[in-house]
Write a structure and sequence with these properties.
The complex is a heterodimer of chains A (about 110) and B (about 325). With about 110 residues, chain A is an all-alpha fold. Chain A is built from 6 helices and no strands. Chain B is of the alpha+beta class. Chain B folds into 3 domains: about 100 residues, 2-Layer Sandwich (Phosphorylase Kinase, domain 1), CATH 3.30.200; about 100 residues, no CATH class; about 100 residues, no CATH class. The chains are: A mainly alpha (about 110), B alpha+beta (about 325).
Chain lengths: ~110, ~325
Amino acid sequence: MLREEPGAADLLATARDVLLNDLLPALPAEKAFAARMVANAMAIAAREAAQDTARDAAALARMGGDPRAFAAAIRAGAHDPGTPGHAAAATLLDDITRARCAVSTPRAIARR
Amino acid sequence: MDEARLTAWLRDATGDAALVIEGAALLSGGAIQQNWALDVSGGRAWVLRTDNAATLAVSHGRAQEYALLRAAFAAGVTVPEPLYLCEDASVLGAPFFVMRRVAGTAAGHRVVRSDTLAGGRDACVRALGHELARIHAITPPRADLAFLGSPPADPCRAFIADQRAALDRQRHPRPVLEWGLRHLERTVPPPVPPVLVHNDFRTGNIMLDEAGVTAVLDWEFALWSDPHADLGWLCAKCWRFGNDAQEAGGIGPRAALYDGYGAVDDARVRWWELAAHIRWASIAVDQAERHVSGVERNLELALTGHMVPGLEWEILRMVEARDAA
């Protein structure tokens, strides 16, 4: 291992705890929003650092390696309900979006 | 802000040679505009509105917004009375206008928590329905609103085309937004005659006090479209500020909004609610791009980009439910 531990995800999570528990209570009220934005950014970055990058490659492969062509096919109606590829396309979009939410906004998928 | 130049201009505009600016304070405003609270001699409480350096290409300039405010004010919409417009950028560095200052609360998270603002939840959304009905009574053609361009023959299809064009301008393909737009295309309702649509009529842009609506703000996205677009934007889950049970903007019941508005085609509103999620996701992509591209490095813009996956999840769920229905 070339990198010293703790790694990015751990450092961000630990630093975020300091921000929220030690610094935020000492900040003037008008700075609380900025501090919460910083905490949110650190949480997103920590989740991204911890994510399995192999999943991105797998999702890309399921799109035939070309997200632009996949998007164009959807626009053209090639994956409409009633087409043979509809269910697979819907599942793929769900899978990709669930993984994206897991980094950006886990609460969005936790509600279900 | 150069107060001496502004004072000279205001003296000229008002014809009051003794006019003095007694106070000027930057209000918390949007990422696009600057709003200044001006206290002017004679007890005049005004707001001066001007642009930040970097502005979204899709929003109207100050002169256009001033014309929209005048049209809305004349139609009886509750807006701050527009007073003076300065199109000469040499006075403050960008065009600006001055309007009367109104008191109230707009902040979304506070508004949706209150059971008493604007006479309570039911009365509040009923009043919002009245406001929308007055806005939608403004119809084309209007010489004073010529900058809005010619009204679309089919506002719903025009929306789809505009959104696709916006996606085509972005750096990355967005399969989920395409999925949503394709659903809208498959289920498009018949054309309706276009009216003036505010196009950002939502919690956060409407100022309230305990008695009622004090101002409908932020007119810079207005266009000729389907009136149900405004109802859908207001009711869309992404604009309820977490208070999902109150379907009209997180503030009050949908039925009371519809009742205050008048005749509502609920199916059309639902179509526009899906459209609202797609449009907001696309705007969020553009806002994040201002940060990523370096046009305006800003943490709030950066975080807005991370709202996109959550909106996409909601779009997938809405399409799934609508296709199953």
